[in-house]
């Protein structure tokens, strides 16, 4: 309960016209306040989200600018030259010209490119790496 003073507009003296009226006041519904830990978690989550957005924006901008260290490099494929020695096989040549790949695939490609011709000592094989 609360007391409210009511004064009419046409009152000549405040003491005569003023009266107190009791009115019921609705109880205010209090919402629970988040704890300090909740605020810390929210701030941490927003900081992570902001950091992720900055990183993504930087990578997008770097991709748009050529010569940037984050931009993918477009270099031409490298070329390897091998001089055949006596006793070399396509397998030895394949391991030399493409050390990171499966030699079986490279041997097949070399054999197809040579059309089955034998290796001759002193012959130069030029291989363009993929």
General description of the model:
This protein is of the alpha+beta class and 130 residues long. Among the domains are: 38-72; 79-128. The chain has helices at 14-17, 36-64, 90-97, 103-114; strands at 2-6, 19-23, 79-83, 124-128. The strands form two sheets. Strands 1-2 form a two-stranded antiparallel sheet. The longest helix has 29 residues, at 36-64. The chain is rod-shaped. It starts with a strand and ends with a strand. The model has no long low-confidence stretch (mean pLDDT 79).
Keywords:
two-stranded antiparallel sheet; 4 helices; 41% helix; 130 residues; alpha+beta
Helix and strand layout, with pairings?
Elements (H helix, E strand, L loop, with lengths): L1 E5 L7 H4 L1 E5 L12 H29 L14 E5 L6 H8 L5 H12 L9 E5 L2
Antiparallel strand pairs: 1-2, 3-4
Would you kindly provide a brief summary of this structure?
The protein is 41% helix and 15% strand. It contains four helices and four strands; from the N terminus they run βαβαβααβ.
Radius of gyration: 43 Å
Please, how many helices?
4
Ranges where pLDDT stays below 50 over 5 or more residues in a row are none
Structural class given helices, strands, pairing? alpha+beta
Q: How many E-type strands?
A: 4
Strand composition percent = 15-25%
Report the order of strands and helices.
Answer: EHEHEHHE
Main sheet specs: 2 strands, antiparallel
Outline, from the CA principal axes?
A: rod-shaped
* Average residue-wise pLDDT: 79
The percentage helix is 40-55%
Strand order of the largest sheet: 1-2
Distance between the termini: 87 Å
